[in-house]
Q: What sequence folds into this?
């Protein structure tokens, strides 16, 4: 039985699926980690970074519901390949534009909007496709493997990205990311995926009907519905800390090199990698997922509190803003922070995959993503504006207090899951 499971877990299609995700994640991480630095270097501000993060997320969220319908109506493999190839074209075009010296922040924001839309089409198809590649009893280990490989891919990005940016400029960053999407698309082409066409109502009436079915499924499942609300707050409060506060902290409060920023990002992703492995090892045998939620919430709140203390001006004065000690403390805390996020997010994916029929899979994941991730662009904007008026340590401390309340309410209400 164990050999049979191992064989299924390591099947060729699943390996190709993992390889494609990892390759594109390396390229995306290389680009995303350098964008805040590049925006600040060409005259942008915290508000500009917030806007970039906003446009990285919002278009995908807007298209998610329709992407879910498309993912349940069309061949998910073709959607993945097509969006990867189009993303490659858009990013390589940025490379040629920057090489010619025509890059502008406004153009960067426009292209990022296009990339976000393509990503919005890609994600629901990917989430819906995974349960068709592995056995249902292997979903926990498979999701753990996907999260681990994605983290490993993203782990390589910060070091590679900062080295490329520091030595060759932004053009080389765009070139590498574009090529990564081309390779990812090639890997996905080789997946042998069985597409079963469902009989559905055609036209706009059918699309509306499919959306209504997906919404009704979520609203009838109290746990999935409440998970959406819980992660809406999580993404609003927590994610902008990585995308807005950390790069701003490095550029305005600390005296470290850009390469050290890359090392910090690597440690953050290493925390996510460890969290992914922990989910598979500790929670892969049918345990209640609330156990992972409790551990993740405790680590999240503890690391956020330590991070806010580390940001106090007194802490920076005592520890120094360019010392190995401060960097080690900052990296360790953010690594725990990242680990906690994985212990919260992966169990949610597993629960939804177990509870959702295949014909609803893309729609449910797209709607859950739209609701829960809706907090990310709003949070990025809110943090960007708040940091123009309020000290960074007070902003994070306020976030900690809010998260204590939210985590307590959710865990108390769902202790049986």
A:
């Amino acid at each position: 039985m164990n050999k049979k499971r191992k064989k299924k877990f390591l099947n060729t299609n699943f390996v190709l699926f993992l390889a494609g995700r990892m390759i594109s994640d390396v390229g995306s991480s290389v680009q995303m980690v350098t964008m805040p630095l590049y925006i600040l270097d060409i005259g942008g501000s915290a508000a500009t970074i917030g806007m970039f993060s906003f446009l990285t997320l919002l278009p995908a969220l807007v298209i998610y519901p329709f992407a879910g319908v498309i993912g349940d109506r069309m061949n998910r493999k073709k959607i993945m390949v097509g969006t990867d190839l189009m993303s490659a074209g858009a990013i390589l075009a940025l490379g040629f534009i920057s090489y010619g010296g025509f890059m502008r922040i406004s153009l960067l924001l426009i292209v990022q909007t296009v990339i976000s839309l393509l990503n919005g089409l890609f994600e629901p198809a990917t989430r819906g496709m995974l349960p068709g590649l592995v056995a249902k009893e292997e979903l926990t280990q498979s999701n753990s493997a996907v999260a681990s490989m994605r983290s490993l891919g993203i782990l390589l990005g910060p070091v590679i990205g900062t080295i490329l940016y520091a030595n060759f400029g932004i053009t080389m960053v765009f070139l590498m990311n574009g090529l990564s999407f081309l390779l990812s698309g090639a890997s996905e082409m080789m997946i042998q995926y069985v597409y079963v066409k469902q009989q559905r109502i055609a036209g706009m009436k059918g699309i509306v009907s499919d959306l209504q079915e997906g919404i009704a499924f979520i609203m009838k499942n109290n746990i999935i519905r409440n998970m959406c609300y819980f992660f809406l707050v999580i993404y609003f409060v927590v994610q902008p800390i990585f995308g807005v506060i950390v790069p701003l902290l490095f550029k305005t409060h600390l005296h470290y090199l850009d390469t050290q920023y890359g090392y910090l990002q690597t440690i953050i992703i290493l925390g996510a990698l460890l969290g992914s492995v922990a989910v598979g090892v500790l929670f892969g045998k049918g345990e209640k997922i609330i156990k992972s939620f409790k551990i993740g919430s405790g680590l999240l709140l503890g690391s956020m509190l330590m991070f806010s203390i580390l940001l106090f001006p007194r802490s920076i004065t005592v520890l120094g803003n360019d010392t190995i000690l401060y960097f080690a403390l900052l990296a360790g805390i953010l690594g725990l922070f990242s680990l906690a996020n994985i212990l919260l997010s992966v169990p949610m994916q597993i629960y939804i995959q177990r509870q959702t029929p295949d014909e609803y899979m893309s729609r449910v994941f797209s709607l859950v993503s739209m609701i829960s991730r809706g907090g990310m662009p709003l949070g990025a904007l809110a943090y960007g504006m708040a940091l123009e008026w309020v000290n960074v340590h007070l902003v994070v401390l306020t976030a900690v207090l809010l998260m204590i309340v939210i985590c307590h309410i959710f865990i108390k209400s769902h202790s049986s899951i």
About this structure: The radius of gyration is 21 Å.
